[in-house]
Amino acid sequence: MPHVDTHCPYCALQCGMRLAGTRVTPRDFPVNAGGLCQKGWTSGELLRSGDRLTTPLIRRDGELTPVSWAEALDLVAAKLRELRSSHGPDSVAVFGGGGLTNEKAYLLGKFARVALGTSQIDYNGRFCMSSAAAAGLKAFGADRGLPFPVTDLAEADVVLLAGANPAETMPPFVQHLRGAELIVIDPRRTPTAELASLHLAPAPGTDLALASGILHAVVVEGHLDKSYVDLRTNGFDEAWRLAAAWWPERAERVTGVAAADQRRAAEMLGEAHNAYVLTARGTEQHATGTANVSGWINLALALGLPGRAGSGFGCLTGQGNGQGGREHGQKADQLPGYRKIDDPAAREHVAGVWGVAPESLPGPGRSATELLEALGQEGGPKALLVFGSNVVVSAPRSRRVQDRLSALDLLVVADFVLSETAERADVVLPVTQWAEEDGTLTNLEGRILLRRKAVDAPVGVRSDLDVLRELATRLGQPAERFPVDAPAVFDELRAASKGGTADYSGITYDRLRSGEALHWPVPSAEHPGTPRMFLDRFAHPDGRARFAAVDHTGPAELPDAEFPLQATTGRVLQHYQSGAQTRRIPELVDVVPEVFVEVHPDTAARAGLAEGERALVRSRRGETVARVRCVASLRPDLVFLPFHFPGEGRANLLTNPALDPVSRMPEFKVCAVALSRVDAGVAA
User: Fold this and answer.
1) Read out DSSP for 210-262?
2) Strand 666-667, strand 57-60: pairing
3) Which among 3, 109, 211, 308 is least buried, having the fewest CB atoms inside 10 angstroms?
């Protein structure tokens, strides 16, 4: 059978693979070098899932009923017109996803701001990358997850991973770390921590105290790269004034990490010829996430790592198009090219590409968590259109989100399966999935990739691009303003991004088809791309990076007598995000069929629980029922739950929607909980 070279539908590593029909084989692509994880190997099963939606659904008498496309789209458009007429354009909101292609993310942002005229658009990347993005922008003037190719890591002597567990979340990535000594910062003894030369297990929510303790040791022990700091940075003195108070013994009292281990980390990094500091969700998904990442950036800058060949700072993007998804307009405060929506020059440029007046574009809208909380409230949106997200499982305080969705006049969900969010919709629109159409994505290293069509979509299924044009024309827009051909959309995206931070203007489908490795910015057709950023200067006007004056404040919610433990959430190897995809693949479900809670054996015993029993995990926001796994390496004050599961197994029934003041990231990674036995009538 003929094969098609394409990329995996899951994480931001975007491993290269080949598809022959639905049969997957790996290919020798730089980020995965012929490897795939279990999710990648089984991804072809998604293309023949028996749960596939092929007909639009409308809720009638409480039940979702199959209808024609014309009827579904007419109903949606009529209701949108009615709400906008009665309550204004911001009565309609849009929620996107970090798994959408660049073309879809771009057209979704354009649809919201031009066809709907609403400022109320955000996406699930707010739950994933926003803190790292905010800290990166502040420090370097530009946000690209890894400002260097993944393959550069193979030459590293030492790599510090803060809140990252790639051995489970992106296993093929780990081969690039084999030559390095690893320092892993994680409260759990994860599979990645098992590979480490040094594992530091701080109390949840104390990341910045630990980063400051290690920075203190770097400076005091003589590892500060003073010439780099003087020549290439600003703000060290202000940052050091705060970090100077965090001598390792003080940091030990707050974090639980031995002062000697903090000094050992500083020594390993300071004596390395090539070193990297990498962050991920464990240190970012906090109400202090931006400050946490800034603390790790401060450490990297003090060591002289960013913008130096063979060393650097970066963050491991999570979702498949988590990078491109935040660059081209589905984020509440951004326009294509990573432009700010309140920048007059940016508005004029993008409006010119779109053929509309700059003043017609709305301003910044609510962030994702705030948008979901406003649904159905006085002054909040009365309709929500969801593309590529499953907020009923993925959003914090998810029962509250469920209630807000129920308060809407109209909920429309475009998906390829009946996700937990689609189950609650008034209208469900069946759309294509990853291998059924061409489109581009931008991986964790800022490389633009062409994901190729390999199979035909089932009869009755339409592309998200087609859905957006059909709705736009019903709302009075000219059809040519909303193209449905992916290369045509990409050409428009190129023009809209030209001159922006994330400049794609020199990238073409032909260049991608020919196999060119194009990392943005690519400002002209002759430009070879920018695989390594910041080698000569950072993206601030003066070319210098910025230290951040940040200090530890701790989690938004502390344990007390009623809720004496802390809970953290994360991923497991076999599942991805809300599980809407992976929970439909038998091979993956057989390995991890349900939610579990990791507990130290002593903590379990105090709660009267044993291995395999069902536990009730309660927080101030809700409760989750999960199967007990006793893990002797876990901190006794901590429990861990994966967030991939629906219903009473949702970890996000517990999580705290407290927001980072800069990024508006919710505090997924720490909340106060209590652990007990499930009532006898519920227990297995």
Assistant:
1) HHHHHHHHHHHTT---HHHHHHHEE-HHHHHHHHTT--HHHHHHHH---HHHH
2) unpaired
3) 3
Enumerate residues 6+ apart whose C-beta is below 8 A from 684.
613, 614
Q: What share of the chain is helix, strand, coil (3-state, %, to 5)?
A: 35, 20, 45
Non-local CB neighbours of 155 within 8 Å, separated by 6+ positions: 179, 274, 310
Neighbours of 23 (CB within 10 A): 11
Dihedral sign from CA coordinates of 607, 609, 611, 615: negative
CA distance 504 to 438: 17
Nearest to 156 by CA among 171, 178, 184, 174: 178
Q: 11 and 318 in contact (C-beta within 8 Å)?
A: yes
Q: Are 645 and 579 in contact (CB under 8 A)?
A: yes
**In sequence order, which residues have a C-beta less than 8 Å from that of residue 590 and are 6 or more positions away?**
none
Q: Is 414 helix (H, G, I), strand (E, B) or coil?
A: strand
Q: Number of H helices and number of E strands within the chain?
A: 23, 29
CA dihedral 239, 245, 247, 250 (to 10 degrees): -130
Pairing relationship of beta strands 545-546 and 233-234 according to DSSP bridges? parallel
Give, in order, the Cα–Cα distances in Å from 106 to each of 57, 357, 425, 464. 26, 18, 24, 11
Distance, in Å, from the CA atom of 534 to the CA atom of 228, rounded to the nearest integer, reads 13
Can you state the angle between helices 207-220 and 289-302, rounded to 10 degrees? 20
Contacts of 606 (CB under 8 A, 6+ apart): none
CB 9 within 8 A of CB 43: yes
DSSP helix/strand/coil, 267: helix
- Indicate if the pLDDT at residue 249 is higher than 50: yes
Whether the CB-CB separation of 494 and 507 falls below 8 Å is answered with yes
Q: Identify whether the C-beta of residue 372 lies closer than 8 Å to the C-beta of residue 391.
A: yes
**pLDDT value of residue 400:** 96
Chain centroid, CA 129 distance in Å: 5
Q: Evaluate the CA torsion angle 198, 204, 206, 207 in order and state its sign.
A: positive
pLDDT at position 553 is 96
Q: Return the pLDDT at 680.
A: 39
160's enclosing H/E stretch is strand 158-162
Reported confidence tier of residue 681, pLDDT bands at 50, 70, 90 = very low
Nearest to 283 by CA among 555, 610, 494: 555
Sign of the torsion angle spanned by Cα atoms 17, 314, 372, 116: negative
Confirm if 513 and 5 have CB atoms less than 8 A apart.
no
Candidates 410, 470, 422; CA nearest to 73 is 470
Q: Residue 153 in contact with residue 305, Cβ under 8 Å?
A: no
Q: How does DSSP classify residue 521? A: P
Is 99 in contact with 582 (CB distance < 8 Å)? no
Q: Are 581 and 46 in contact (CB under 8 A)?
A: yes
SS (H, E, C) 422-460: HHHCCEEEEECCHHHCCEEEECCCCEEEEECCCCCCCCC
| Residue at token pair 């209701």 | 79
Q: Which residues are registered as beta bridge partners of 65?
A: 58
pLDDT in tens, 620-653: 999 999 999 999 999 999 999 999 999 999 999 9
Per-residue tokens: 655: 């999580």
Q: What sign does the dihedral 170-175-176-182 (CA atoms) show?
A: positive
**40 sits in which H/E element:** helix 38-41
pLDDT digits (tens, 9 = 90+) for 310-330: 999 999 998 999 999 999 999
Q: Is 418 left (phi over 0), alpha (psi -120 to 50) or beta?
A: beta
Q: State which H helix or E strand residue 629 sits in.
A: strand 623-630
Calpha distance 162→286 (Å, rounded): 13
Ranges of H-type helices in 544-591: 586-591
